[in-house]
Amino acid sequence: MGAPDYCQVIKNPMNLTYVREKVSDYKYETLQDFVQDIELIISNALLYNSDPNNPYHIAANEMKKKYIKLRKKVLMQLQSQG
Question: What is the Cβ-side half-sphere exposure of residue 54, based on CA atoms within 13 angstroms?
Fold first, then answer.
């Protein structure tokens, strides 16, 4: 993968492929479990690519901004249904 030290830096790896598999296999018991995995992906990306000028760090920050907006929208929709 081009990141031989990844597992030394990141103690709890997570990726979108694994999230997709968990969704497909109905492994998430709660929305919070899903949210935690998405947040873990973002925090891992920011930690591993800690230099703010690193393109992956920049992309992770953009993903974080989009995720926060989407999470807010989903939670508002769920609250209006309840």
Answer: 12
Q: For tokens 């901004």, name the residue.
A: 65
Listed in order, strand segments (DSSP E) in the chain are none
71 vs 1, more confident: 71
In Å, how far are 33, 61, 65 from 79, measured between CA atoms?
A: 18, 27, 21
Main-chain phi, psi angles of 54, to 5 degrees? -65, 130
Lookup: tokens for 41: 């992906």
How many Å separate Cα 27 from the centre of its chain?
Answer: 16
What's the whole-model pTM score?
0.89
Question: Which residues, 6+ apart, have CB-to-CB distance to 49 below 8 Å?
Answer: 56, 57, 60
- Taking the C-alpha atoms of residue 75 and residue 52, their distance in angstroms, rounded to an integer, is 30
| pLDDT in the model for residue 2 | 80
